[in-house]
Specification:
With about 400 residues, the chain is an alpha/beta fold. It is built from 15 helices and twelve strands. The chain folds into two domains: about 40-65 and about 300-410, Alpha-Beta Complex (Aspartate Aminotransferase, domain 1); about 70-295, 3-Layer(aba) Sandwich (Aspartate Aminotransferase, domain 2), CATH 3.40.640. The protein has helices at about 20-35, 70-80, 95-110, 120-130, 145-155, 165-175, 195-205, 230, 260-270, 270-275, 280-295, 300-320, 335-350, 380-390, 400-410, and strands at about 55, 115, 135-140, 160, 180-185, 210-215, 240-245, 255-260, 330-335, 350-355, 355, 365-370. Strands 2-8-7-6-5-3-4 form a seven-stranded mixed β-sheet, with helices on both faces. It has a three-stranded antiparallel β-sheet with strand order 9-12-11. The protein has a two-stranded parallel sheet with strand order 1-10. Helix 7 links the parallel strand 5 and strand 6. Helix 2 (about 70-80) packs antiparallel against helix 11, helix 4 (about 120-130) runs parallel beside helix 5 and helix 12 packs parallel to helix 14. The radius of gyration is 23 Å and the shape is globular. The structure holds pyridoxal-5'-phosphate. Pyridoxal-5'-phosphate binds next to helix 4.
């Protein structure tokens, strides 16, 4: 297309950008919109959920986002006279609401301190900006969340990717490139499998490396009263940093870095997200404090999540799907985008809604449908989804998927 970035004059139509940007937008059009039957990106289906649809998209794993105690805690602050502090975290001191929540989270997870951030993304990017630079070797599991990859990029460090959950490969890379920082997720958000934490943290300590474990999908759902996988394995004193999105089991909009008191002293004055971006508001923090109490107290929610997840995973395996999940995150890998589109449509047609993951969240030929199981689901609802998955197996070509063949090959 010709370079004509204001061809529409004042008529507010046909306003194009210079070619360097238009080219990028057109590439997105070709890649994402055009190939799909409904003209929308693959992550957007053609159906709208109706009453009775089964929603397996939300990461509110403990089913608490509308809990009355949490709502009340937020409302109490909103209804108070006076303004909430609106400012960057760098100005918030000991004695602030933020500080008390951070202390409570540290105690909960068995650490000395924690740092409340605006999101899991901000936590990971801010942490990497502070702890790494051009001279740092960073060892990162290939499936680690994009926010940690982005943090590595921002820090200028050199990433060495190790094969997913392959601690022997990690150790070979460290032997080759020397001491550095190890990044991993405890529970992987695409396929729901769990990291070999004991092995990896042992390697980190033997090689005097810093370890960062992203517990976004295990904090609240795993470990004693929801304290996470690091705590459940007795590793709290061996791991340097836990990071987490509080938009999963905590069902809020925030993130956290869990760390030593020593490190927490410096972070607000070094991390750009703490200096150049505003902190959470008091009503949001009040909601999170109430959420922490609900999470600590309601073991029955974790139990029901564990039962539901196991029932669903085993049910899918019995009918031939290759599931690598060990948790509440359960993915069916259609592989090719056209296959995942067929699968998505067949599920939505029958009132089952999951989340499509595709490039850049997965390799291009390994797109998948992710189901997030939660503790409030009833067995008959999960059984319905299993029945649907069985009914559509032939229609969606499940037997011919690469993931199915991998399973058969053992
Ligand atoms: C493992 C992991 N880390 C970090 C994030 C980012 O969290 P947030 O959505 O709070 O920015 C996510 C969210 O998708 C995640 O799954």
């Amino acid at each position: 297309m010709a370079y004509n970035y204001l061809s529409g004059g004042n008529k507010k139509k046909n306003i194009f950008f210079p070619e360097f940007l238009e080219k990028k937008l057109q590439a997105c059009d070709q890649e994402l919109f055009r190939p799909r039957k409904n003209g929308k990106p693959l992550v957007i289906g053609s159906k709208t959920p109706a009453a009775g649809s089964i929603m397996l998209q939300s990461n509110d794993y403990l089913n608490i986002s509308s809990h009355p105690l949490i709502r009340r805690a937020q409302l109490e602050v909103l209804q108070k006279e006076g303004n909430e502090p609106v400012m960057s975290a760098v100005f918030l001191h000991e004695g602030s609401d933020k500080y008390f929540f951070e202390q409570a989270m540290a105690e909960f997870t068995g650490f000395e301190s924690s740092i409340l951030c605006q999101s899991g993304w901000a936590a990971n990017v801010g942490l990497m900006q502070v702890i790494a630079d051009q001279s740092t070797a960073v060892y990162i599991d290939f499936f680690t969340h994009m926010s940690l990859w982005e943090g590595v990029k921002i820090s200028g460090a050199t990433p060495y990717a190790f094969r997913h959950n392959d601690s022997a490969h990690l150790e070979r890379l460290i032997n080759e490139h020397g001491q550095g920082i190890i990044l991993l997720d405890s529970l992987y958000s695409t396929n729901g499998d769990i990291a070999p934490l004991l092995d990896i943290i042992d390697i980190a300590n033997r090689h005097n490396c810093i370890s960062v474990v992203d517990e976004s999908h295990s904090l609240g759902t795993h470990g004693p009263h929801g304290a996470g996988l690091v705590a459940s394995l007795g590793l709290s004193h061996k791991v340097h940093f836990i990071t987490a999105s509080l938009a999963k089991a905590f069902a809020g909009r925030a993130g956290i870095i869990i760390c030593s008191r020593h490190f927490a002293k410096y972070y607000p004055y070094m991390a750009y997200p703490a200096i150049f971006s505003s902190a959470l508001l008091s009503h949001e923090i009040a909601g999170l404090r109430a959420t922490l109490e609900v999470i600590k107290n309601d073991d029955y929610r974790r139990e029901s999540l564990r039962e539901n997840s196991e029932f669903f995973r085993e049910g899918l395996r019995k009918i031939g799907y290759n599931i690598s999940s060990q948790s509440q995150v359960v993915a069916i890998e259609g592989g090719l985008e056209s296959d995942t589109e067929l699968l998505r449509d067949a599920l939505e047609e029958r009132g089952v809604f999951g989340s499509v993951f595709m490039s850049p969240a997965t390799p291009k030929t390994r797109s998948l449908m992710r189901f997030s199981v939660h503790s409030g689901l009833k067995k008959f609802e999960l059984q319905y989804v299993l029945d649907v998955c069985e009914t559509i197996r032939d229609e969606v070509g499940m037997w011919n998927w690469k993931s199915t063949k991998r399973n058969k090959a053992g």
